[in-house]
Amino acid sequence: MNGYIVLKNSFLRLSLFYTVLSTLILGVVIFTLASAPASAATFNGFTVPTLAPGIQNITTGPDGNLWFIEAANPGKIGRITTAGVVTEFPIPTSSIADSDPRVITAGPDGNLWFTENNRQMIGRITTAGVITEFPIPLNSSPLGITAGPDGNLWYAEQGRSMIGRITTAGVVTDFPISSGNFATNITAGPDGNLWFTVGTDTYGGFIGMITTAGVVTLFSIPTSEDYPYGITAGPDGNLWFTYFGNTPKIGRITTAGVITEFAVPEYGSYPYLYPYGITAGPDGNLWFTEYYGNTVSRITTSGVITEFAIPTSYPIADSMPYGITAGPDGNIWFTETSTGTIGELILASVSGTTYTISGTITTSSGIGIEEVIVMLSGAGTGTITTDSNGNYTFAGISHGAYTITPVSWPGMEYSFTSQNVTVNGANSTGNNFTGTPTYSISGTVESGGTGIAGVTVTLSGAASGTTTTDSNGNYTFTGLSNGSYTITPSKSGYTFTPLNVTINGANSTDDNIVVYASGSGGGGCTPVGYSPAWLIITLINLTLAGGYLMRKKIALNY
Predict the structure, then answer these.
(1) What is the Cα–Cα distance from 479 to 417, expressed in whole angstroms?
(2) Which of 337, 371, 441, 538 sits at 20 to 30 Å (Cα–Cα) from 124?
(3) How far apart are CA 539 and CA 503, in angstroms?
(4) 104, 69, 36: which is closest to 290 by C-alpha?
């Protein structure tokens, strides 16, 4: 199929050249270049390190990253985070011969599965990058692949009139479709069957359906001069597919086989847009790429099409967008075949709709904690404070991935753990937090009744920290949980013995500890070059919920 497409593209360009040449000789203008589509969107672009053209399909993985195909020899599987960090994994057989990987999909086993069109292989890659290859019958030339409702992988055989099934253990079964036809792409349908696109050697084709038992039904497409190519399940319970050829269109087929076609607006007088990839978006629409139109386009379930120009410009053929998928961050991700780039369309930039992120922060007994500072980061940023009932709401939120982080300010006796949330076409509610009680250790370092400033006090044990006594000799450690701690003061001219303290959440008042001077039977503090001193350390445990006080007093006698 790849060779056939290249030949067909060459024929179209050559025909276009002679058409323009002949019209110039005759003095008639019938071909003009048009301006880019008017609709604007915000795009991000991430260059693949090897800068290899030929990036093909892309899908969302089970690990929250995007996975894509690098078809250029030697073939690779690429992984990109939503922040744009790319990692590449070479396909083992590509070191022997060009494996020509084509399509990748998330499998039912937590791995990614892909087709190798030239090597007659189905590949599996773990999210850690370990690749295993399974041979399939010769001349299969697998192209599209998808996870089926039966826990297997199903793939379209471009080289034979077959649909293949492979178990996660690598057992292969073939099902014939019809002689003289070749399958291209495949997807799981809303009816529990697999749906696929079929081309013929003389243009035209079919939309096919195969049950998990292998029973095939073919539905003829109305247009005879184009091929159906990409296919996906839509949010409306139908299947949606792309045509590439002389009259670019998007097709819709019901599970009963009724087909409706929607014409893609021509890019000026250059009609060969070649819609390729198509995916269901998180906004309830379908999104597709226009290979020569240099756009990422949207079609509603009622057939309204809007095109968004990719911001890289060459005449006619440009970045050549190909594969497309809805990302884990709520945006649309796609591949740019000619530039070796992974593109991202920020969905919020074209939707005009915003959402909210909300929740409540309480104690373990369900009492709302007010005046907690809540920070939002990720696709957007913001800071807000909880109300008297512990509630918070971030408004004006766009699609994307976010992190919510409540902050414990000094004096607040609670700690919190951050939460991740993705806004995807709806408000995100119930992002609640329960505060974990924390305590403090504080004290005073004195000499002859006068506080000593500038003493470094180090905390170790269940938590660590360092502070310095103030002008009155006071110090405080906050945000501590139950556990054992060691307090170690230090200052030039003094020698201190560390103090061990246990916080256990129990009330303790006026629990005095006398520490004797060195040589008198206990640990102590020996000032060097100073008169005898007193060191008083007060340990305070206080919770907002219960409200209790633990006080430890340490007297250093000389």
Answers:
(1) 13
(2) 337
(3) 9
(4) 36
Report which secondary-structure segment, H or E, holds 2: helix 2-26
Residue 274: its pLDDT value, please?
A: 83
Residue 14 lies in a domain: no
Assigned domain for 24 exists = no
Spatial distance between the Cα atoms of 206 and 223, rounded to a whole number of angstroms: 10
Residue ranges making up the domain that contains 161: 32-351
25: enclosing H helix or E strand = helix 2-26
* Tens digit of each residue's pLDDT (9 = 90 or more) over 266-299: 654 455 678 999 999 998 899 999 988 888 999 8
- Residue 514 — very low, low, confident or very high, per pLDDT cuts 50/70/90? very low
Same domain, 150 and 178: yes
Q: Residue 58: enclosing H or E segment and its boundaries?
A: strand 55-60
Same domain, yes or no, for 40 and 95?
yes
Residues 503 and 426 in one domain: no
Residue by residue, DSSP assigns 167-231 as: -TT--EEEEE--TTEEEEEEEE-TTSSEEEEEEEBTB-EEEEEE-TT--EEEEE-S-SSEEEEEE
Which residues is 288 bridged to in the sheet? 278, 297
Say if 27 falls within a structural domain.
no
Query: Which of 321, 351, 381 is the last residue before a domain boundary?
Result: 351
DSSP 258-275: -EEEEEPPPBTTB----E
Residue 105 clears pLDDT 70, i.e. is over it = yes
pLDDT of residue 449: 73
pTM reported for the whole predicted model: 0.61
Mean of pLDDT over the chain? 78
Largest CA distance in the chain: 116
Length of the chain in terms of residues written: 558
Instruction: Write down which residue in 404, 434, 464 finishes a domain.
Output: 434
Q: Can you tell me the distance from the alpha carbon of 48 to that of 542, in angstroms, rounded to the nearest whole number?
A: 54
Distance CA 468, CA 466 (A): 7
